[in-house]
Amino acid sequence: MREIRGRAFVFGDNVDTDQIYPGRFLELTEHREIAGHAMEGVDPYFAGSVEPGDVVVAGSNFGCGSSREHAVITLKVAGVGAIVARSFARIFYRNAVNQGLPVVEIPDLDPSDIEARGEVTVDLESGTLSHADREWRFNPLPASVLEIIEAGGVFQLYRRRADEGRRARAPSGLR
Q: For 3-174, CATH number?
């Protein structure tokens, strides 16, 4: 999961959490239902066309607005493999890391340089975004963040560590 390949869904600046996941659907609790409304406030066709591994590419301040995690959950469950943006709202960025959704900042990225639905490759370890004949560099994600992403989120990582600790402490006949 250190390299993500998919089609680019391109958006501009200031895409807020209510555009990512409209607040009128907050009563939904099933993740698949939630995912059916991904990006509905800015692209009503997104949820029906996004495929696993596709990449959201955006301008500045992606995920501004409320601090609710629904916005990240809807994108992750819809199949988004990563989000690349010029910048992120801090709470959205942290929520994405906590949920295990890769987020990459490239300050000099102009989203209009990426062809909508064109193939992109995001290499989290080497710190590159590739599209057509172009490449952008970013700071590779730290090992601790890659570990969270590969576990599927921070809660899953801590559960796995706790399980490993219990197994390590169990008498050898009980392992």
A: 3.20.19.10
